[in-house]
Amino acid sequence: MFTYDDQPDDEDHDPTEDFEGPPVAGPTQDELEHFAPFLAEDYKDFKVDFIDYLNDVGKEPDANKGYSRQTVKGTHYRIEQVFRWLWDEEKEYTSDLTPEQATELVRFVHNRTPHPDSVAYHYVKSIRRLFDYYRDRRREHIEEWEHDVDLTNTNSAKSNHQKDRLHPTEFRDIYQAALEHSSVKSYNNKTMGPEEREQLKIFVSRRLGVPKDEIGPEEFKKASSWKIPSLIAVTCDTGLRPIEVKRAKVDWFNLDRQKMIIPKDQSSKNSERWRCALQNRAVSALRKWLDERSSMEKYQGTDALWLTKYGEGYDSHSLNPILQDLMEKAEIDQRGRDLSWYSIRHGVATVWAEDKGIYKAKNQMRHKSIETTLRYTRNSGDTLTKEVNSIW
Prior knowledge:
- One of its GO terms (biological process) is DNA integration.
- This protein is mainly alpha-helical.
- Helices cover 49% and strands 3% of the residues.
- The chain has helices at residues 26-32, 37-56, 69-90, 99-112, 119-136, 168-182, 194-208, 217-223, 227-238, 242-247, 280-293, 316-329, 341-356, 358-365, 370-374; strands at 253-254, 259-262, 274-277.
- It has a three-stranded antiparallel beta sheet.
- Strand 1 (253-254) and strand 2 (259-262) form a beta hairpin.
């Protein structure tokens, strides 16, 4: 249910533009289907008002100063997860969170992640912003909230490379889930009954942002896309960082040579030009995505490889929910692990370092220092000679 992102909020950066993403995330819309339609509308109204508050005045109400776009986005997605947890706990709808429930939520997050001082801390800050909203906009009397959960990180010495990782077999499962999630049956598929077609109409309506009564055969075709499968496949080969997903350009990829080539001035560290290997599966998915992309109006005039449905570049806050959704569909066992988009990178780095050799791993993962790559080894001494097709 939860995604754990310990990327810091950018509270001190004045926003240049407000966050304008969907007020209700896809997984939350799915949960709201268990309640009466008017309750779903109530929740949407609440979220629109809450996001407006964060954008406009949330940081300093008296000075009409809002939070940065990054902070609003992070708060928005965490609060979405808070309410999904709350509805599951209480077995009923509400848009109110009490201090007691907030403490239980923090305890739940603390027990689910090995990084409580970073992950749970961000949930605490997001909940405090929600309580500020209750006070300022709803005029509710809520005393300053203090929880009693010890957020001391017992793994504080644990380096970034030690974060929970995904494994090669899970790469395959996640990619399979991406294929299934991204493809829609033909509208006139003879195996599909009226009930299934109605459910798919709802799904297509949400994906395309088109009213349900306007959905027909052509919309069913448009709803299938190679965007997410290509993104997952390339990341499982190269361990793309969120910033690299955002910066990825069409001309980074030489598909005939099965290479991703990042120019020095576009690399995340601006350190050197990187040449990374792609396996057959990723090349095939990318070819299909590039063909599809070429006919999409959204991509006219831009060389960005992947954009959200709102025409924005991806970041950790938009990538983590995608991964979480795919892991749930693939039935990945997340118990005891703190999994985020970076978990793919940590898994890829570990496989390359242990199975392919340190220097190949350094290049594939775009590490500036060999010492960084060495952290992904367990000193197993094993050296395998299989190439990239054997990784997942």
